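dumping this here so i dont lose it
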């Protein structure tokens, strides 16, 4: 456990770090177009990749452009032929290393470290069904963590409480709710969203069963606030699901799993 604590501490410090110039050389790039060896990449002080390619002369010039000495082994990473590929972006996971994203700031640090060491560089944190006040507290925690300087956290995904009882899966049936306007307002307020001004909050995605009495209206309201509604954990028929997508749903949660059809 002490080793894991050390990893969490180091990874969290790295994820909280401010952008700085970085250069990687001698990598094996792998992407949809295939594989290239001897590849390098250079980012500027804002953390933005400003040049990439092959050829040492160009690499050294780009390093100097961002204030890096290409011969400084502490500033330039030699990949030694290892694979260089874009990091994973995860939009649906509830935690890692025995911690949930619902477990407060420490739980977020541990769980994010558990994903980061396996290559997930950006993540939407999925929150489980709970009483509404607990969900709002967890939303505010994600928001505060993001505002503290965590570019690796893209926001949160609310998987519940607006789910069909018959398709609840592991979610607590006592906490399931119809998405009435008052609850929607509370969640958007907790997220920091202000639909009137166009300000986005920290809720990036929310799973809703469209057949609930206020399901379609809630999909419209969340979509208008910049949230991506997902159809999932539902018992809807085809026509109702289509109404959900027409209202603004843009993704599915557990397609053909925890729903009928």
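and the seq i came up w/
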């Amino acid at each position: 456990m002490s080793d894991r604590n050390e990893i969490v501490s180091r990874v969290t410090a790295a994820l909280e770090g401010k952008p700085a110039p970085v250069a990687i050389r001698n990598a094996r790039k792998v992407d949809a177009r295939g594989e290239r060896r001897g590849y390098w990449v250079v980012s500027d002080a804002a953390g933005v990749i400003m040049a990439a390619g092959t050829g040492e002369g160009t690499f050294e010039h780009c390093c100097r452009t961002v204030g890096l000495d290409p011969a400084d082994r502490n500033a330039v990473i030699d990949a030694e032929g290892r694979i260089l590929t874009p990091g994973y972006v995860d939009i649906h996971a509830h935690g890692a290393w025995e911690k949930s994203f619902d477990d407060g700031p420490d739980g977020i640090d541990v769980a994010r470290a558990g994903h980061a060491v396996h290559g997930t560089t950006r993540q939407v944190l999925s929150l489980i069904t709970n009483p509404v006040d607990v969900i709002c507290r967890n939303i505010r925690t994600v928001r505060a963590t993001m505002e503290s300087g965590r570019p690796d956290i893209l926001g949160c995904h609310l998987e519940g409480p607006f789910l069909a009882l018959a398709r609840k899966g592991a979610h607590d049936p006592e906490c399931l709710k119809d998405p009435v306007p008052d609850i929607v307002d509370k969640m958007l307020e907790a997220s920091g969203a202000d639909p009137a001004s166009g300000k986005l909050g920290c809720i990036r995605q929310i799973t809703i069963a469209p057949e609930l009495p206020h399901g379609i209206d809630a999909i419209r309201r969340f979509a208008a606030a910049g949230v991506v509604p997902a159809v999932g954990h539902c018992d809807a028929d085809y026509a109702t699901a289509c109404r959900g997508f027409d209202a603004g749903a843009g993704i599915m949660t557990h397609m053909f799993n925890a729903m009928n059809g």
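Helices lie at 2-16, 56-65, 104-116, 132-147, 181-191, 215-224, 238-247.
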